[in-house]
Amino acid sequence: MDWENGTWIFTIPLFIIGAVFGSFFNVVGLRVPKGESIVAPRSSCGSCKKQLSAVDLLPILGWFIRRGRCHYCGVSLSPVYLLGELAGGLLFAALPFLVSPRELWIAYPLVSVLLILTVSDLKYMLLPNKIIYPAMLLFVALRLILHPLPLWQYAAGFVIGGGALLSVSVVAVWMGKPAMGFGDIRLMALVGLVMGLKLVLLCVFLSALLGSVIGLALIASGRLDRKSPMPYGPFIAFGCLVCFFFGDRLLNWYVDLIVW
Ligand SMILES: [Zn+2]
Predict the structure, then answer these.
(1) Residue 79 alpha carbon to ligand 1 centre in Å
(2) From ligand 1's centre to the CA of 74, what distance in Å?
(3) pLDDT, tens digit, for every residue of 231-255?
(4) 20 Cα to the center of ligand 1, angstroms
(5) N- or C-end of the chain: fewer Cβ atoms within 10 A?
């Protein structure tokens, strides 16, 4: 989409809606792994347990008004809250410019699921089945209706995406290195189901590359112990979005590069 057909009119409303959803995804990502209800009770400060007021609950603005601290006890709040709201706002606003109108039906649920899983993995190192299994069912239904590629591509993406990570995990265990969890394997299978075989392979490659670079940087700077595990879900989520938005262009560029 472009300037002419007026997509820009929706950008600010979509940003606000995305930030509100981002705030809700934070709650889902933080509560579902603990088996808590996502509707009640209202959010409270993790330190002093006081219920948050309307101002604190304002997406993005609330964080800046309170300068990232609890209004009652002054404890610093995790920047994950702010980042989740910003990511929700930016992605919701950007999607109409990044994918075709029909693929928006896939893009909005995909971004939502990935944001929830990223929050949960960063906080608990856990990608809950309670989120991944319903998401698999949802995307099977959506892909049966909307499939720019032949259906077998998505089925193959599911099996081979999950299989690729399973093999890496088996090799890592065999070499005595920290391995990926089953959650990561399930998430990559989900990514394959959504994007098809070609793009899930690119996602396996991109997320591994990104995970190694950032992992090595964290170890070199002393922020991460060589032996300690690192949540891998956020790298899969990031790789998935890059592939979903730009994967075909990346692959064409690469093919041009090696052919000439
Ligand atoms: Zn507090």
Answers:
(1) 15
(2) 6
(3) 999 999 999 999 999 999 999 998 8
(4) 22
(5) C
Integer CA distances (angstroms), 217 to 32, 109, 191, in order = 31, 32, 26
Instruction: Report the separation in Å between the CA atom of 114 and the middle of ligand 1, taken as the mean of its atom positions.
Output: 28
Judge contact between 87 and 22, C-beta under 8 A. Answer: yes
Joined tokens for residue 57 = 């609950």
CA of 62 to the centre of ligand 1 (A): 14
- Residue 5's pLDDT is 67
pLDDT (tens digit, 9 = 90+) per residue, 75-129?
A: 988 888 899 999 999 999 999 999 999 999 999 999 999 999 999 999 999 999 9
Helical spans, DSSP H, in the chain = 11-31, 54-57, 61-65, 79-98, 104-124, 129-145, 151-174, 182-195, 197-220, 233-259
Which residues, chain by chain, have CB under 5 Å from ion ligand 1?
A: 45, 47-48, 70, 72-73
Closest CA to 243 of 183, 188, 193, 195: 195
Residue 13 CA to ligand 1 center (angstroms) comes to: 31
Q: Which two tokens stand for residue 38?
A: 């996502």
For the chain, which residues make up each domain, given as ranges? 1-98, 126-260
